[in-house]
Structure formats: C-alpha cells, structure tokens
Amino acid sequence: MCLLSGGLDSATALAIARAEGFVCHALSFDYAQRHRFELDSARKVAAAAGAAEHRVVRLDLSAAGGFGHSALTDEIAVPKDRAKAGGIPVTYVPGRNTVFLSIAMAWAEVIGAFDLFLGVNAVDYSGYPDCRPEFVEAFERLANLATAAAVEGRGRFRIHAPLMRMTKAQIVRTGLSLGVDYSLTHSCYDPSPDGAACGRCDACRLRLEGFAAAGATDPARYAPPPGDRRS
C-alpha cells in the first residue's frame, strides 16, 4: 500500500516499494486542496509504475467542509520566496497525514496488506509535525493496536518511510536510478490555472534545489517569473 500524492516524494516512495518487490495498491486523496493538479499526476504515476490498483478517496478538509486553517485548503496566501525558517508553516493541513494513514490502514487490513509506504521526509521537509520519524513510529504502534488483523496475529503492520533521512537531491537521484518519470509529477502548492508550477512556494523551491544539487534538470513546467513579459 502506498500513499500517492502525485508529487516527487511519493512517486519515489512508490518506485522504491516496487523495486523491493511489493505489489502496490496506490491511494490518493481529493481533500479540497487548491493544487488538485496533483491528482492527475497521481493517476499518471500509478499507471506508469504498474500499480495493481489506484484509488482516489474524497474527503473535505477545507473550511467549507468544517476544517480548514491551511493555505492549501483555504483562501490563505501560499508563502512565496521565503527563506528557510523555524516553526510550522501555514501550508500545514491539520491532521492530514493521520487521516490519510488511517484510511490507508483500513484499506490495507481489508485486502490483507501489512506494509504501508509514504514519502515523508525529515531532512528537506517544510516543518510539518506529521512528517517526523516520531510520528511514523507512533502510527505504526497504533496500527498494531487498533486493527483486528494485528490483534488476532494475522500480521504486523509496518510503516515504511524510505525517504525519511534523504536530502531532496538524494531522493531525485534515487528516483532517476529507478526510472521515475518526474515529468509526470506535480509538487507546486499554488499552480497557475493551467497547472504550471509557480517556482516560488516552499514545495517548488525544495524541488528545484534538489534537482540542481543532483545535477539533473527538473522536467516540470514552470510559470514565467513575475515581470517576465515573454509570451
């Protein structure tokens, strides 16, 4: 089972799972995020990776759905051109990874799977508390306490976070070595109406820096910078 957003990290985690011999069921979420272009990317990535199945679950984590409080789901400006800073950024979505993993755990139990992969990262991450090793370890413990399959001894859940200790450059190199087509992925938090990446949000900047450090060219399509009048 692999959580697949459609971004660079989750596409790489899926490729690693496949390379390790797992038959992968991919799971994505339409949670009313402003960057829904990632769902089209998730479908393409899942197909290219030969996923056994790909599901998109709908749930509303926006203010309209009674949740919100994030620049990814509300009418809150996505930070641009910011230097790396401490603290939790406004693009944090409350409870997102906990909700996603809970649904993935439930589906995994139904189909008899016990290995869950996700692309969280604690080196180049953007300050999200649910991307830390402590969170992953705690959720693994919870999965083995909260499911009939684990309690009855039919298997033990393992949460795999293969990118956790990698830099973004290492992630890019790993994906390229496994044949990941990064032109299919979408990472931008605030894309233009036609899906072009802004190149200025945290996700875009980390991605661009990663490709540059890896000595590779990012195949994503970026919008012209402000003031560029070229057609």
What does this 3D model show about the protein?
This protein is mainly alpha-helical. It has one domain (2-213): Rossmann fold (3-Layer(aba) Sandwich). The chain contains 7 helices and 5 strands, in the order βαβαβαβααβαα. The chain has helices spanning 8-19, 37-49, 96-111, 133-146, 148-151, 168-177, 202-213; strands spanning 2-3, 25-30, 53-58, 115-117, 158-160. Helix 1 runs parallel beside helix 2, helix 1 crosses helix 6 and helix 6 crosses helix 7.
Number of helices: 7
What is the N-to-C succession of helices and strands?
EHEHEHEHHEHH
- The CATH homologous superfamily is called HUPs
Strand order of the largest sheet: 1-2-3
Instruction: Name the CATH architecture.
Output: 3-Layer(aba) Sandwich
Shape: globular
Q: What's the number of domains?
A: 1
Low-confidence stretches: none
Give the strand tally.
5
CATH topology: Rossmann fold
| Protein structure class | mainly alpha
How much of the sequence lies in strands comes to 5-15%
CATH class: Alpha Beta
Report the span from N to C terminus. Answer: 43 Å
Major sheet details: 3 strands, parallel
Helix share of residues?
A: 25-40%
Average pLDDT score: 93
